């Protein structure tokens, strides 16, 4: 023992004591104060709690995370109430939850998880259960619109139509005949609501447009590369199935910004300034067109504002030429991607 009690060893002992103390402090702080840490099993079974205020207090505490980052859960702007719903559908920007069904809820899944909130929470499981949840949402929210963009693996003839019919969703179906194919404006949102044609569905299978009357996604929108390949700073290019982003014969623009393998802790950073920069880059690549759909993982997580701030900025630019939709002052959309479920006040998409 005596050989360690020497003056030259004191700095090492001091450093080790400091690091150990900081680790104990941070662990204790997370267990006792972090709203995202839930020890009780009953709490862990639920989706992430709606704790915006508590999360901000934690992030802005005098002792933030030691890596210098902050992570809070933000909330959406109620766009339809703020601006109104009197414009064509393609004149609004909707936050999109990538792989909306892949929820981190503690249940075993055959894929990575991409979201924390259940589908109802994303809009405000076997496919039929998810679709029934959407039907319940549409029934309870008669002014909302849901867009579903499906990564379609259904091979049974008319199988997709059957599952939508069984879920009671056909009464909300937006007809193929009203979808513009040459870049024209879509119908007004308020007309879609009045006619109760509030469910827009796209499929990744081209043949189903003729066989089942379900819109083939890339006849109506352009989409950038998804995954790691679509996250390179200063670059924005179309995924293989999509035409070029500046193809104005497609009225809708979908921008993906999420990793090939979702990593929840990194979502706070990627959903912040990096996302806003990519939206700007893609705006120029898409022929000076703002994205209508912005697809992300863990959509509420950011360093502050996050994906909601990014869509508020794009909405402001699209609606009134300002960098914040609140300045327009006059469709709270949120989308779900099945790969993306989008909600316009609900919608879904894919890759």
From TrEMBL:
Keywords: Membrane, Transmembrane, Transmembrane helix. The chain crosses the membrane at residues 12-32. The keyword Transmembrane helix applies. Gene3D superfamilies: Phosphatidylinositol (PI) phosphodiesterase. It comes from the Eukaryota. InterPro entries: B12D, PI-PLC_domain, PLC-like_Pdiesterase_TIM-brl. This is Uncharacterized protein. It comes from Penstemon davidsonii. The lineage of its organism: Eukaryota, Viridiplantae, Streptophyta, Embryophyta, Tracheophyta.
């Amino acid at each position: 023992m005596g050989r360690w009690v020497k003056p030259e060893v004191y700095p090492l002992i001091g450093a080790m004591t400091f690091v150990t103390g900081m680790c104990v402090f941070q662990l204790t702080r997370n267990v006792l104060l972090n709203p995202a840490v839930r020890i009780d099993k009953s709490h862990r079974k639920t989706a992430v709690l709606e704790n915006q205020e508590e999360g901000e207090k934690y992030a802005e505490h005098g002792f933030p995370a030691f890596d210098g980052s902050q992570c809070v859960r933000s909330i959406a702007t109620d766009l339809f109430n703020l601006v109104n719903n009197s414009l064509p559908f393609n004149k609004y920007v909707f936050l999109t939850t990538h792989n909306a069904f892949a929820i981190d809820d503690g249940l075993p899944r055959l894929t990575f998880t991409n979201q924390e909130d259940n589908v109802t929470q994303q809009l405000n499981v076997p496919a039929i259960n998810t679709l029934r949840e959407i039907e319940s949402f549409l029934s309870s929210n008669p002014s909302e619109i849901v867009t579903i963009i499906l990564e379609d693996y259904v091979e049974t003839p008319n199988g997709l139509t059957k599952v939508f019919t069984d879920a009671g969703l056909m009464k909300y179906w937006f007809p193929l005949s009203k979808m513009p194919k040459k870049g024209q404006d879509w119908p007004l949102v308020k007309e879609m609501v009045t006619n109760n044609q509030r469910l827009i569905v796209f499929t990744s299978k081209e043949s189903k447009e003729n066989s089942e009357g379900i819109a083939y996604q890339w006849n109506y929108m352009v989409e950038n590369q998804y995954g790691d390949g679509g996250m390179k700073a200063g670059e924005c290019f179309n995924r293989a199935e999509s035409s070029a982003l500046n193809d104005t014969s497609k009225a809708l623009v979908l921008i993906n910004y999420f990793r090939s393998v979702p990593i929840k802790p990194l979502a706070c950073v990627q959903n912040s300034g990096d996302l806003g920069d990519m939206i700007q880059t893609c705006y120029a690549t898409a022929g000076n067109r703002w994205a209508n759909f912005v697809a992300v993982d863990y959509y509420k997580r950011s360093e502050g504002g996050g994906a909601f701030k990014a869509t508020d900025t794009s909405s402001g630019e699209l609606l009134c030429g300002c960098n914040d939709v609140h300045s327009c002052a006059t469709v709270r959309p949120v989308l779900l991607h099945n790969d993306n479920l989008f909600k316009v006040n609900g919608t879904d998409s894919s890759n």
